[in-house]
Design a protein that fits this description.
This protein is α/β, with parallel strands linked by helices. The chain contains 4 helices and 5 strands, in the order E-H-E-H-E-H-E-H-E.
């Protein structure tokens, strides 16, 4: 049995099918922790294009870093609440503990997922694949990158 499972959630039907698969098929117990991770691609709104990030940490800094962190954290909280609301019916009857988390995107969504796995001692990664790449019906680029780079088992639901 697994003790910590991560579901990469993007709001797609494929990721909802992956959650349903965990609920009905993956061997879990009441002590299993399911982390439902929504990777946020949120950027700071209304940032003047000419400011950029060049001034951060210098005397020429145009935006207070605490303000940036506060805006980002508020957005992540909203995204967690939206993801939880979107998943309510799929979470009914979940036989394990779960938590919905919004995580800010790093270099790429795949790298963010892989970093989360490494930092949180995940036993199993579950994700849906929409397969929207150039080859119809194949794995999507994110699921393919996670599958190739993850040291833990990866379950991909089509």
């Amino acid at each position: 049995m697994y003790t910590k499972i991560m579901l990469a959630f993007d709001g797609s039907d494929a990721s909802k099918r992956a959650l349903d698969y965990i609920r009905t098929t993956v061997p879990v117990h009441s002590d299993t922790q399911l982390d439902i991770v929504a990777v946020s691609t949120y950027t700071i709104p209304n940032m003047p294009a000419n400011i950029g990030w060049y001034g951060i940490g210098t005397d020429f800094q145009a935006i207070d870093p605490q303000t940036i962190v506060k805006i980002r954290d508020e957005q992540l909280q909203r995204e967690q609440e939206e993801a939880l609301e979107d998943l309510k019916e799929h979470l009914q009857g979940m036989p394990c503990k779960y938590e919905v988390k919004a995580v800010p995107q790093g270099l790429s969504i795949a790298d963010t997922i892989l970093d989360y796995v490494e930092d949180n001692d995940v036993d199993l990664v579950v994700m849906g694949s929409r397969g929207l790449g150039a080859i119809r019906g194949a794995l999507g680029s994110v699921s393919y990158a996670v599958l190739r780079g993850c040291p833990k088992p990866v379950l991909i639901i089509k």
